[in-house]
Amino acid sequence: MKVILLQNIYKHGVAGEIVDVADGFARNYLIPTKRAVQASAGAVKSQKRLLAQVEMRRAEFEKLVNEVARAIDGTELFFERRAATTGKLFGSVTTQEIADELFRVTGRDINRRRISVNGLREVGHHAVTVRLGTESQPALNVYVVREGEMNEFMARHNAAKASALAAANAETEVTEEVAESSE
Question: For residue 114, is it within any domain?
Fold first, then answer.
């Protein structure tokens, strides 16, 4: 019997598919439990309409997820923690703390389970990926700093950022001058 699956059925198909199953399986299990409907001409027409709506909603969702991914990509998060002289933390920076700080900094609420790290246990820079959309996996720049050294670290970090920006601007100016002189 041909049926349209309303739910994902293990080893038979996913919701929305038209599949051929045993008559008894359809009559005694799938149709009474509302996991499928018989594939009549009217049901097939409505199924196609539903699939079009599902695809449209899926595309909107994917667009939204990829927009969030682009917004949080490269975000810098800073944590100050107690650490031993070797750089090992007394504890860790958890995925929940990373998600909370990301929300505080960007206003984007990300489920902690989407953050691809078990916990940061060392002082330093960590590139942490976030599993969101199919287009890309944004990377967060997480810095863990020893307790009491945050002001000194931020001064060094901002100075390094400013010098990198100045070098990029100088390179752009040189490229523009070369382009103008070749014209």
Answer: no
pLDDT digits (tens, 9 = 90+) for 45-104: 888 887 788 788 888 888 888 889 989 999 999 999 999 999 999 999 999 999 999 999
**Listed residues 43, 69, 95: the one ending a domain:** 69
Tokens of 183: 């014209």
- Give the burial string for 62-97 (b: 16+ CB within 10 Å, else e): eeeebebbeebbebebebbbebeeeeebeebbebeb
Q: What pTM value is reported for the model?
A: 0.69
Strands 2-5, 36-38: pairing kind: antiparallel
Full domain range(s) for residue 43: 2-69
Q: How many CA atoms lie within 13 A of 178 on its CB side?
A: 6
